[in-house]
Amino acid sequence: MPQLAIDATCLPQYDKLDKPTRERLLAATRKFRELSLDALLAHPDLRIRPLPAGQDPRIRTFRISDSWTGVMLAPESGETFLLIHLLPRDSAEDWAVDQRHDVNPVMGTLERRDATALEQASGGPGGDGSAPAGEAPARVGATAVPAASAAPPGGEGTAAPRAAPGEPAVSSRASAPFPPPPSSAVSAPSSGLLFDRVSDRDLERLGVDPEVREFCRSITTADELHGWAPALPQDQYEVLRALAEGHSVQRVRDEVVVPRRPVVGAVAADDYDTAIRHTRERVIVVNDNREIEDVLAGEFNAWRIYLHPMQRDLAYRPRFNGPAKVSGGPGTGKTVVALHRVKHLAEHLPLGGRVLLTSFTNALVESLRRNLEMLLPPEVVEDVDVVTTDKLALDVVKEVHPEVRLRTDTRGVFANYAKQHRLPWPVDFLFSEYRHVVTARGITTLEGYLAPDARAGRTTPLNADQRREVWHAISSVRAAMRTSRRLPAEDLHAEAVRILGERSELPYSNVVVDEAQDLHPAQWRTLRAAVARGPDDMFIAGDNRQRIYDNTVSFKQLGIEIVGRSFPLRVNYRTTEQILDWTDGILRGGPVTELGDSSATEPGGAMRCVLSGPEPELYGAPDEPAELDALAERVRAWLADGIAPADICVTARTNKLRDSVASHLRARSLPAAIFHPREHSITDAAQSVRVTTMHGVKGLEFRAIAVFAATADALPQLDRVTSAALDENQHQADLDAQRSLLYVACTRARERLYVSWHGTPSPFLPL
Ligand SMILES: Nc1ncnc2c1ncn2[C@@H]1O[C@H](COP(=O)(O)OP(=O)(O)OP(=O)(O)O)[C@@H](O)[C@H]1O
Question: Where is coiled-coil annotated (predicted)?
Fold first, then answer.
């Protein structure tokens, strides 16, 4: 019986099909699984056809509808069909005749190349033998070169093809898949040719075949190589790119070639069937009709089957000798790595062991739980708790004090106390001393608070008498909260740590933390106390660029010793290069501090984008009604472009703005629903444009994001910012958190970003 496999590179095209065409495609793909080979090839509706003589004999086209054609690889050996592209009927054959598929001689993977473009570049028939000059190539001789020829015909400017996971970058951002090599490893080519320092023998051992070897000999710069990415066989391009960055042959072999090689044996050059199944990076073999639908509808996320070698190394490393940390900008797959790490840990649990997967908010935890359920079989999920750190602390405390509840109005309690006792300090000051000094630093006694360095970093000085008064006020408020049995999170965690410290058995064998940048030190202490120190005790993923709550922590002081186990991720899989370039401006290019160590900055090195697309759109309206009108038109145009309503999210700074946006969109007959991330899955059936706050989009992603009312009086929202007079450092930290909030909102966009304001624009906007 024939088998169907799907090349992930064609999935974005599926988004462009209208509903009837999608249904026809699904019906066609079912036939590939259900009919015998002969019946399939003779099927009158499918009209499976080879290409004109002389072209790759394994490529066939088939009819999806009158206007759409599927392109597939139909091996002569075996019965596995690989769906490789979906194209408008009049361009499918043109595209297909340029392509050739081969089995990589060393890696055993199936690779595709634009054979026509490479042949012409190497001086073949019709070619001028020259590699494209300067920037990413535009044309070679009279022939459109890869970047152009591989772009989906009929595409409407989402520009370059969406590269498959692991496929070469199509963006022009500097690329750095590995940490920068030691300077001694980089030898600038003396001849001006990029690969002069690598012998043919080494290239061959790295899986670079004779045609690509000859081609790459004339390449002079990494940018030039980069421009050829869409034409080159995918895995060979990865090898060349790593070499071009100055990495040693040995390292490229270990990190690019070995992870792709079959564990046992080799794949024969003509064994396409095995090669298709072995190309885990790009190919999904589907087993039933339901899976086909899931894959095509994007439910079967690529990250479930493919991890970049760096991601895989971190997720599936047999053991870390202590806490390990994964950092990296937005969309670099930190959550994906954390989820796979949970899989690895849960599959290797000691008897009676449990894994904790945790994050900051209920919404994030919900989304982690959903994803984990997709990745792990149910019997393994049972060994994993997915809860917020606050819920963990509450559960621990409740085992001993069942009547205790979590309090969320702590600032109000401080406000009442300050008013009743006519304290000389504003409530924000008191609350901040409680949150950022006393509980953050774990100070439990007056002596501790009087210690000279207890308030290091605070800019409002307090003499000893003043400190006594502040301490007395804070202690009184805490005592009142304890009496009421409603504890604020900070005190709840302190109690949880005390209880855990008395237990002989700790609840978890491993703790995995996502969005770690937002946790308060009190929450970290609970996590530290919930797992015994030792190998694989903590796996931490986060990004300080995205810190939207005012917490700074020192892992070292919390007993979380990361040294030597900190790993940056640098390939962005979510956001287009254009969007990421613009959003970088929100952060003003300042150095990013290390997660868990604010005294150090992250090592430099650019992020590489896998996707490319239109520039972000900006609009400054004269007033709010005009801004709302423009927003409605923008959303309408996205819908007309075929973006599903649920793939569009409008986000605003406050609940009030959010509500006003939702009702205005509805009043203009647009399907809009207020989105509470905790209650809705982003893939649920409701066909509405999501409208939510900027906090609500944290950790999520959408094809199109509109940021509404990025005006000076909403961003920063000054009533959430400590005044500079009260504490200069806290003032700056609060402003930074709001800047990050805008950054987080914008970096949720996969393809389209629209930012609007009225009146004075927010000072955070890079205009
Ligand atoms: N190896 C991969 N192959 C394909 N897609 C991937 C891969 N890794 C991550 N992705 C995709 O990239 C997107 C971002 O991944 P993820 O949410 O893990 O990133 P993140 O670093 O946690 O992002 P953020 O910090 O912005 O929340 C997701 O759509 C994910 O499915």
Answer: none
